Amino acid sequence: MDAENVIELRQVSTRFGAHVVHDGIDLTVRRGEIFALIGGSGSGKSTLLREMILLHEPNSGSIRVLGVELADISAADALALRLRWGVMFQHGGLFGALTVTENIGLPLREHTDQTDRQIDQIAAAKLAMAGLRPEVGAQYPAELSGGMLKRASLARALALEPELLFLDEPTAGLDPESAGEVDQLVRTLRDQFGLCIVMISHDLDLLWQTADRVAVLADGKVQGVGAMAELAAMDHPAIRKFFDGPRGRAAASSPDVTKWNPGEPTRSNPGFRRAASGLPIPPPPLEIPVLRRPAWKPK
């Protein structure tokens, strides 16, 4: 596996009975990039994400994540690998009986030897990292707005200092202002903390403004991979439907859309896409504490 590649999928095929979901999928996700999966309903986006995070096993093919082959992985190796990534689920996935602080602290209590005080301090820092005020930590998930719930889920996904972050529909159901804040937060996490981010999204504004590369799934295969500007120039019908409708044209013509030259070197500079366009990288919503690679280790 190339050291620059965080995820490699080779000839991945998935079937549910006679229904073929994936038919020889090949994909590569590079270190330090924001990579998005898009496609129509039933195209296999969520199934592919579940396969990457060890929640479903494909029928054939190879999936390597952070240098580890997922096929026939042992339980111990699977746990060690899961501690290296974080997942923000579409509907939050928080425990309703726990406060936000308790939800964020749960993986720390399960997998580290931190004291309660240290865990609460880390949880507070992750709240700030996700753009939430300290007082939100005492609230329960049912008391949060949609945007706050997304951020709280993101804070929990960041609890164990992941190298890789998976986001499932991070702006789904949010109002435009909240969705715009998530756009900014996703960029900040990559640009300031060097995270590799893989996301599923139908939000064209989010894709234009944050994604370095996007893969379009249709008919069991990857129909195209590239920057949004590159995809917009492709003729495949499965790709055109994302750009030819009113929403697609509006997102592409937004003054906030970043333009860049896909032929330029990119991986050495995490902020390349906005810097190359002359646009400043936006500041984080709050002052974010630097907590990369803390002293504690998993049990």
Order of adjacent strands in the largest pleated sheet? 6-7-8-3-9-10
Q: Portion of residues in helices?
A: 25-40%
Identify low-pLDDT runs. Answer: 258-299
The total strand number stands at 10
Measured between the Cα atoms of the first and last residue, the distance is: 28 Å
**Strand percentage, roughly?**
15-25%
Would you kindly provide a written description of the structure presented here, covering whatever features stand out?
With 299 residues, the protein is α/β, with parallel strands linked by helices. The protein has eleven helices and ten strands. The chain has a six-stranded mixed β-sheet. A four-stranded antiparallel β-sheet has the order 2-1-4-5, with helices on one face. The radius of gyration is 19 Å and the shape is globular. It starts with a strand and ends in a 24-residue tail after the last helix.
Give a concise summary.
The chain has 299 residues and is of the alpha/beta class. It has helices spanning 45-52, 75-82, 100-111, 116-129, 146-157, 176-193, 204-210, 228-232, 237-240, 246-252, 272-275; strands at residues 5-16, 19-30, 34-39, 60-65, 68-69, 85-88, 164-168, 196-200, 213-218, 221-226.
Question: Which helices and strands occur, and which strands form pairs?
Answer:
Elements: E1 5-16, E2 19-30, E3 34-39, H1 45-52, E4 60-65, E5 68-69, H2 75-82, E6 85-88, H3 100-111, H4 116-129, H5 146-157, E7 164-168, H6 176-193, E8 196-200, H7 204-210, E9 213-218, E10 221-226, H8 228-232, H9 237-240, H10 246-252, H11 272-275
Parallel strand pairs: 3-8, 3-9, 6-7, 7-8
Antiparallel strand pairs: 1-2, 1-4, 4-5, 9-10
Helix pairs in contact: 3-4, 3-5, 4-5, 6-7
